[in-house]
Amino acid sequence: MSKKILTGANGAPVADNQNARTAGPRGPVLIDDFHLIEKLAHFNRENIPERRVHAKGAAAHGKFVVTKDITKYSCAKLFSQVGKETPIFARFSTVGGERGSADTVRDPRGFSLKFYTEEGNWDIVGNNTPVFFIRDSIKFPDFIRTQKRDPKSNLKDPNMMWDFWSHSPEALHQVTILFSDRGIPDGFRFMHGYGSHTYSLINKDGVRTWVKWHYRTQQGIKNLDPQKADELAGTNPDYATQDLFDAIEKGDFPKWGVYIQIMTEEQAKQYKENPFDVTKVWSQKEFPLHEVGYFELNRNPENYFAEVEQAAFAPSNVIPGTGLSPDKMLQGRVFAYADAQRYRVGTNYQLLPINAPKCPYANYQRDGAMRFDSNGGGSLNYEPNSDETTPKQTNLREPYFPADLSGPAGIYDHREDGDYYSQPAALFNLMTPEQKQLLIDNIVGSMQDVKTDVVKRMIEHFTKIHPDYGQGIAKGLKLK
Description:
- This protein is α+β, with helices and mostly antiparallel strands.
- Helix content is 28%, strand content 16%.
- The chain is built from 13 helices and 10 strands.
- It starts with 33 loop residues before the first helix and ends with a helix.
């Protein structure tokens, strides 16, 4: 076997990688040691900005397999026949913590899927919960700041998040899930996933159907006791990351069944609630789950930075036969996610191998930092043009979001819907006495150092969900 020669980034061989050039044996170091300067300058730039949200995560490659025919709902080619396989990349994450934070904190888990289809990349960027804290994307920066650090102390402050929630009762459904026994999953393999938002599917006739995506773990649901989670945060903060990696290395490939709830456009117009409100679920009695297929994760990344840290998911990645909805949170994420990737990774982030489509692609994007392909060569960089060999639009019906818009443009109060309590009440009533007590104990523990006026507002909300809910928390906090 021939010995590999160490080279610089320009390919030139490196004579000495152990010693810097100096003026004499004791120095000082000379600035013309370009190999030293290159090493230090590259090292200084090895960390790209971490994700503002979902910074700590783990991921794996796998496959999606169709098991049921849904072609009457979608003309997307990945659903074209039963048994068809499509490569995927899945990333799991916590939400509020930094890259070095613990995997076992009480937090929603990000649950993002990238499908490398023959028609382009399709991303569903969701969570392990079917709902979210807010329903309008204009509140997203405000909400996320409450999950980060206090600008003065640089410490996490429960006053921030509880204060925000006390003024945002639409968050109560998600808060109840977060502080329930499912608030700390036992690793990433033992939790369900959801697209959370309402999405759409479009068939070959242009008929649109609203859908909710569900991924049901085939490993079973397992959650961590809060005390065990705290212990792991100090002894093995990468607990979930290690669990996923080790399972795949051993050949114990995790699987999730893929299902959809289906609602027609006519049903949506008549539905008693806003079907595009991500703080609420659709009744599974009225809109049962329909099997679509399953996905399996069967290959770990070879390099964490290249494949996981640089992975860029965005709900703007849609393909023919799939689409979005008027969900106000989803609409904001369509812009925000892709824009975050342009800032975090660079304007050419979609050219990186982990993000690039596996099908042929062509566009008129040119230049920008880190453009490492041919940059379009000598081809034209504008359109329309007279060169028949350059990329041309398909002139097919717009497949993503057929417009059905009405009403004057304006700013509408998203809190005019005052039913914040019925769905968390239904969830609370489903719980066993032990689950209810754990929920109450978890909230009491979180609110120990929260200001009295905030606590009182929250107890009013919890009492409206169920008297036992509010009274249990008041008792735990020793309040009347």
